[in-house]
Design goal:
This protein is an alpha+beta fold. It has six helices and 17 strands. It is 20% helix and 32% strand. The protein binds FE2/S2 (inorganic) cluster and fe (ii) ion.
């Protein structure tokens, strides 16, 4: 059985990736064609012509006035996936229809629902409001991962690896040395992992972007909504500077690090990453620096996880992992993911 939960929302793309042209991406093993209508709506349908499976994203297939014309024999489809014209006859078979997928465009992402469309509730799309907020400046990207999505979930839920895998970027000795707390909200479907470092070295990622020198308070509060959306609320402040009693926090720097973990296949993943900050909003130098640094960090993870995937795929099953305290969040996430693929899995939660 597949380990990928299907009755779920997944990030398929950034909104900026989809225009009035044919765009294909494989999500959860399904090859999906995306395009934007003249009115600006994103559509999602199977990227396989019902006639002889020619991919509708491949030239010479083309988009003409909100209709897709298959480049092989000319079957023509509307924005709802229904076939409106076939060659050589006027009657269009009733079953000539592409599978279409519900989509929601929100917080700069295009979300797609894989699975039973009747269960798709747009209100259940988890939110990352900073990514489209004028109060934040965001840099973002996507890196392909040749590893199963569960390895990225493990990776992101346990940031102690920053010290080792990302030394010189975001890792300092305090990350691995500081214990975490984990909370699981089964009802809302969220795993929380927090690590509050109250007197830590400032890694280059934050020193160069904030201008802080010397030691810092560095709080990492993770919020993971399985399967797709991961948020790391990162708070950086001079040592001893706390949020005010009214909850405001004007003397700290806030960075919202967002990942969307979208399975491409059972053994590959789209690793969407975004870094939103509430300081130096108009400073292009800071944007360029954070984009380059975060991409480098993501690629360090990609390299490690690609290795792990090769190891796992080439060795017999049954390897006994040894888990310790740092793995509590990752294990909670695994339990939640396992529940989502059970046949009796509850309908989509509201986030
Ligand atoms: S394969 Fe598309 S029209 Fe024949
Ligand atoms: Fe990492």
């Amino acid at each position: 059985m597949s380990s990928i939960p299907t009755d779920q929302w997944y990030v398929a793309a950034y909104g900026r990736e989809i225009g009035q042209e044919l765009f294909s991406r494989t999500i959860c093993g399904e090859s999906i064609l995306f395009w934007r209508t003249g009115a600006g709506e994103v559509t999602a349908m199977s990227d396989r012509c019902v006639h002889r499976r020619f991919p509708l994203s491949e030239a010479p297939s083309r988009l003409v006035d909100d209709q897709v014309v298959c480049g092989y024999h000319g079957f023509t489809y509307g924005a709802d996936g229904r076939c409106v014209a076939v060659p050589g006859q006027t009657r269009v078979p009733r079953t000539a229809r592409l599978k279409s997928y519900p989509t929601v465009e929100r917080d700069s992402f295009v979300w797609v629902w894989i699975g039973d469309p009747a269960k798709a509730d747009p209100a259940a799309v988890p939110r990352a409001p900073w990514l489209a907020s004028p109060d934040y400046t965001t840099v973002s990207g996507m890196e392909p991962l040749k590893a199963r999505f569960e390895l990225l979930v493990d990776n992101l839920l346990d940031l102690s690896h920053e010290t080792y895998l990302h030394g010189g970027y975001i890792g300092t000795p305090e990350v691995a040395a500081t214990p975490t707390t984990t909370e699981v909200d089964d009802e809302a479907g969220i795993v929380y992992v927090s690590r509050h470092m109250d007197d830590a070295e400032c890694p280059p990622f934050y020193a160069k972007s904030t201008g802080l020198t010397g030691r810092i308070m560095r709080w990492q509060d993770i919020e993971y909504s399985p399967p797709c959306l991961y948020k790391l609320h990162s708070r950086i402040a001079p040592v001893g500077v706390l949020p005010r009693p009214d909850g405001s926090d004007p003397d700290a720097f806030h960075v919202e690090v967002v990942y969307a973990i979208t399975p491409e296949t059972e053994h590959s993943t789209h690793d969407f990453w975004a870094v939103a900050r509430d300081f130096a909003l108009d400073d292009q130098g800071v944007s360029d620096f954070l984009a380059e640094q975060n991409r480098t960090v993501v690629l360090q993870d990609v390299a490690a996880l690609d290795v792990l995937e090769r190891v796992i795929a080439s060795e017999p099953p049954g390897y006994q992992e040894l888990s310790i305290n740092i793995d509590t969040g990752g294990l909670a996430a695994r339990r939640m993911l396992a529940k989502l693929v059970e046949p009796s899995a509850a309908p989509a939660r509201t986030a």
